[in-house]
Amino acid sequence: MKQLVEAIVQPFLETPTRNIALIPGGFKPVTSGHYHIVNEIANNSNIDEVVVLIGHKTRDGITAEQSLAIWEIYQKHLPSNVTIQIAEANSPILDIHKIIGDNPQNMYYPVVGIRSEADQSDLKRFDSLGKKYTNFTPVVLQGDPSISGTKARQALLNENIDIFKQYLPDVLNEQEKQQVVEILTRNISPEPIQENIQPDLIPHIDSINMFAIENGYNIMPLPTVEFICDDVENADNFFGKTGYYNPATKTIVLYTLNRHPKDVGRSYAHELIHHMQNMEGVLGNIQTTNTNEDDHLDAIEREAYELGNMLFRNWTDSITNQSEPLNESKLDSTILYVSRDIVNAFKLGKTFKRTYQVERGGDYAEFDLTARFKQIPTLQWPYSISANADMETMNITIEYNPNAFPQAYNDMVAEIKETVTHEMEHVGQQNFDDMYTPSKKYHSELEYYTSDEEVPAFVKGLIKRAKTKRIPIETALEQFYQENALHFPNPETDWQIVKQTWVNWMANNRDKLKKFLSTAQ
Fold first, then answer.
1. How far is CA 360 from CA 15, 34, 333, 513, in A?
2. DSSP 405-439
3. Mind listing the domains of the chain with CATH numbers?
4. What confidence tens digit (pLDDT) does each residue in 210-229 have?
5. Where are the beta strands (DSSP E) in 362-505?
6. Mean pLDDT, the chain, whole residue set
7. Which residues, in sequence order, are bridge partners of residue 383?
8. 116 close to 150: Cβ distance less than 8 angstroms
9. Whole-prediction pTM value?
């Protein structure tokens, strides 16, 4: 505990406005181990400020407010550059993400105390920060394995006050130690043991929130979450509620009785997308809960199902480290995110530009999207979409007849997703080794449609069309032919060659397409 990681004094770092250490934790209760970590950091000459962030979760009756009261006693013995506060979010890690992201002028050092091998997982909580920010470096300090909050709480529960005081810093006098005891013995009680109780969902909810923020979902400020655990009538009703979002209060309500916790988590991800829609002003004034009566509600719910399911799948894969499904689902999630940004920009009627990052097999690539919209009242059809992409860019242009909207809205959304899927395939082909396909010039439409470069792009785009419009893949193929027949010199014979090439590719790559095919038909 005598030295900080060398990263703090790396000479090649540019001098930021301030060097700030962030120390998150539960601190239930605050032990001598916690005190020594904060004191060690605060006395380091390279650190300007130390911010201690207390988590909200109660442990054996010890609250965040009690932890803060104890820290205020300790603070008398700490340097003046130490600030102690209760985290704003449910998890202090979420506060760290926001602090680092909102203050790029400062250099931050999130601190992790490691007592044993089991604590190594705490360090992984900061892995995703490296993908977004450069103004931070994690600091690891070795803690005393004999000192833990669990052992301190157990001593209090057993009323072994003298043993408990051994877990407090030696700098405290006897009166101060007694003050700590009095603060804690007001409320401390063992966690209740109940049969059939719902598992603690809060850590998983916090983890989903963090994952969503890290991956660009606009969910700040976070919603309030309420659990209804005792509605027997709702639980017995096949058509009962699983959850809902109240946009006025920014509250997600989840029904948990007799439900698998993973299913509750999936419901939360769905409602979290509605919260994002609310934050982005796209929910609108919906007057019905029937998707058959309101096209806007149908589009809003479709997006929540798609993005919510992909968010939950991506988060699950990030926890369980399932590499191959992770590759495909992350790519699919990027497609959905790019598509929704284009749709939202279309509603505003403004040219949209943004840089996106996509991951596959641990490799990362970035591409710049430009989406343009041209209103043409004399256009003979509702809309026309043209696009192209290479290693670093994707360009999409939508010409549309305003008189055809909103009737043509859902069809256009489906084609936007199909187009983005097609172009994302080309981005991947130019960036990832396992997808690499050389680009070349084509001498005929038939050669173009049956090339190694274009076949997977067209097939995946059509599967996305089938999934979005909830039609069989065969119907999607037939629609494509009707829309593009004029592109073929010999429509009937050329199309049969193209169609058979695409069907053969699907059959030979069924494992890769399993996820798409299972939801498209």
1. 34, 39, 12, 16
2. TTTTHHHHHHHHHHHHHHHHHHHHHHH-GGG----
3. 6-184 (3.40.50.620), 202-295 (3.30.2010), 346-520 (no CATH)
4. 778 767 788 877 888 888 88
5. 363-375, 383-389, 393-400
6. 80
7. 400
8. no
9. 0.44
